[in-house]
Fold:
Amino acid sequence: MNINLDILIDSPTNEIDMKFGLETLIGTSDVITLTSEGILRKKVTKNITHATPVRTTLKQSFKGSYGQHFSVGIEDDFLQKRFRQIGKPVFIELIRYFIAESLYLDHPNLTPQADSVLNDMGDNANKLIARIRRPLIRMHQVPSKYNYDVKIDCKNRGADTFQICKLTNTTALNITEAERADFIAEITAYITRFNTRTGNGRLLIKGTDDTVSFGLSGALITNQVKKMLSSNLHVNNTIVIDDVEFLKLRVQPVKLKDGTIVKYFIVGILE
Structure:
């Protein structure tokens, strides 16, 4: 059972440096393999070996910048059955979700079907987000060294293409420079997205226009806190933007070297 994907490197000459091109391809293989097996097994694989039942295979190249077809092969009967239960559209949607979360990027809301599969993974969802960060660094070798964008696409029936991810020099910084601050700040914000099982979501700080990723920290991962965040999300989904209800939060920022904040870890909610 195979899922066909494309990797496209936006090289103006249709050529790439072989060393860094291969590094990006290896990183792509590891990210897609680890994410695919994590979704199907509902647990995180530590190492990829020759016996791994989910494998990537290079296909022929294609014209247009530097393009390469490849496929994800599922060789285990049980995992094939689970893939059919999940369905290809939801499976690809979840791969996009995990890569976006690992890079602290915003992404479309999950469909109810994808959200159900994610919730079924429990704590392993956050473990998988953390697990693929190292191979994502390798996957970013071409964007980091040459500033060429890298896109992973999945072709649907007909001419439609579903973009799984777009890696850039900016997303490279997200994965290589992000560090959790050693201080606690206070912010006023409201919740725009929240998953109660993973504790991850997006928030919008008062007076700003762009949402930022957030997660819950340590002892704060309680049902009471999750209910407070879920309640804020629900209330604000039913009222006009000028009347949103804000929360005062104590947070630890995750920052890049230039000061850009890519995530907040909520460590307290002020009454």
